[in-house]
């Protein structure tokens, strides 16, 4: 009987798309080939994390919770590191695959010290991409040091460009595997007019929406001021902010101060995300830095035209074909692009359809899973798993 490849996934940021990404991998890899363990922290979002934990455990994935801090905390980080390292010493793994910045350091160093044969890393946007000056220099230097002990770094197109520009690793270590979504998991939802009434929206309201954590990275102030400019010209427009996070009270105070309480609505976390997309007419992303966010894939799958800050999405968003790309923090330009879409229903429909076609063609879920399987197996291609490579490649 062929020995399975044992993989340990590690994640601290269990409140975002990184956990969705990890859950997809853990639950869809071929379990006749791979045996999977996941270590994560639930400190950021207990409810969201445990929904994913239960999903993984139902798929017979071993999940271990180890508390980890989001920010640098020397004492607590040492405790977390020792727990991870001790687990690696006591259990034999063929691959450790770390996800996001904090786990990227803790798990890679622990795996290197424990002499795990292969170390992978998926940054979900390099931390230095959101920094400037000395902070960018320090965090990019840390990534270079980590890159030296990493076999492969899994990146989207814009992350690959950042890695090359800052010499994080050579091109031979960079694996370009874009995110994808299993849209079969999205449940059918209530009719649009019923959902609008449930949300307190007028039936004829044109809805602009954005989904994400209420954190600095998403630059919600730019979104709010773009909304204010848009509503001044198009009073029928309503803007939704869908998510939870540390900035909620501050953002609500800002909306109230601007007199936009009835026009810019923070919905909080929304579990049935398909219902949000059924109500939205235009999707907007004002993020300051990103990898390849799932929300853009979702919006395009649901045939929504997209206005997004230009963060290297050329493989996903084609200017004036399926969306508009705009400069970061330029709320006036964002409002202008939203206005163009509000005025032109045919343009909204055409962009939405082209976006759906692009996601369906280039960002397939099977390719996402099979590409990871192939990358793992290639490290063992000179041994018992060599015969499995053609099978995996054939399933793409």
From TrEMBL:
Instruction: Tell me where in this chain the Glycosyl transferase family domain is found.
Output: 193-357
Q: What's the domain of life for this entry?
A: Bacteria
Arranged from A to Z, the UniProt key words for this protein are: Transferase
Give start-end of the signal peptide. Answer: none
Q: Which InterPro entries match?
A: Glyco_trans_1, Glyco_trans_4-like_N
Pfam family example for this protein?
Answer: Glycos_transf_1
- Kindly indicate whether the keyword Glycoprotein belongs to this entry: no
* SUPFAM superfamilies, A to Z: UDP-Glycosyltransferase/glycogen phosphorylase (SSF53756)
Q: Tell me yes or no: is Lipid metabolism among this UniProt entry's keywords.
A: no
GO MF, any single term? glycosyltransferase activity
Glycosyltransferase subfamily 4-like N-terminal domain: which residues?
A: 17-184
What Gene3D superfamilies does this protein's entry cite? Glycogen Phosphorylase B
What protein does this entry describe?
Glycosyl transferase
Name the species this protein comes from.
Puia dinghuensis
The record lists the lineage as:
Bacteria, Pseudomonadati, Bacteroidota, Chitinophagia, Chitinophagales
């Amino acid at each position: 009987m062929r020995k399975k490849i044992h993989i340990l996934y590690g994640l601290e940021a269990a409140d975002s798309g990184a956990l969705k990404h990890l859950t997809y991998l853990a639950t869809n890899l071929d379990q006749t080939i791979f045996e999977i363990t996941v270590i994560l922290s639930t400190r950021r979002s207990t409810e969201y994390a445990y929904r994913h934990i239960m999903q993984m455990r139902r798929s017979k994935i071993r999940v271990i919770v180890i508390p980890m801090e989001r920010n640098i905390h020397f004492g607590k980080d040492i405790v977390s590191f020792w727990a991870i390292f001790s687990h690696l010493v006591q259990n034999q793994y063929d691959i450790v695959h770390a996800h996001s910045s904090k786990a990227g350091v803790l798990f890679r160093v622990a795996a290197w010290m424990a002499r795990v044969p292969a170390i992978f890393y998926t940054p979900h946007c390099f931390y230095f991409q959101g920094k400037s000056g000395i902070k960018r220099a320090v965090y990019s230097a840390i990534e270079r040091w980590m890159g030296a002990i990493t076999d492969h770094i899994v990146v989207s197109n814009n992350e690959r460009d950042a890695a090359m520009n800052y010499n994080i690793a050579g091109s031979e270590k960079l694996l370009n595997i874009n995110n994808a979504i299993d849209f079969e998991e999205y449940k059918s939802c209530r009719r649009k007019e019923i959902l609008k009434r449930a949300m307190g929206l007028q039936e004829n309201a044109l809805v602009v929406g954005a989904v994400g954590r209420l954190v600095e990275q998403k630059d919600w102030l730019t979104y709010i001021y773009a909304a204010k400019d848009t509503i001044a010209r198009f009073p029928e427009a309503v803007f939704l902010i869908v998510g939870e996070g540390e900035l909620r009270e501050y953002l609500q105070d800002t909306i109230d101060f601007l007199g936009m309480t009835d026009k810019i609505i923070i919905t909080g976390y929304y579990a049935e995300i398909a219902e949000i997309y059924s109500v939205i007419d235009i999707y907007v992303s004002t993020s300051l830095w990103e990898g390849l966010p799932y929300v853009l894939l979702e919006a395009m799958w649901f045939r929504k035209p997209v206005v997004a800050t230009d963060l290297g999405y050329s493989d996903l968003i084609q200017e004036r074909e399926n969306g508009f790309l705009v400069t970061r923090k330029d709320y006036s330009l964002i409002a202008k692009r939203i206005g163009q879409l509000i005025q032109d229903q045919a343009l909204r429909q055409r962009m939405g359809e082209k976006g759906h076609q692009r996601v369906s063609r280039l960002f397939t879920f099977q390719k996402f899973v099979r590409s990871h399987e192939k990358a793992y197996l290639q490290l063992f291609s000179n041994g018992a798993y060599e015969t499995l490579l053609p099978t995996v490649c054939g399933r793409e």
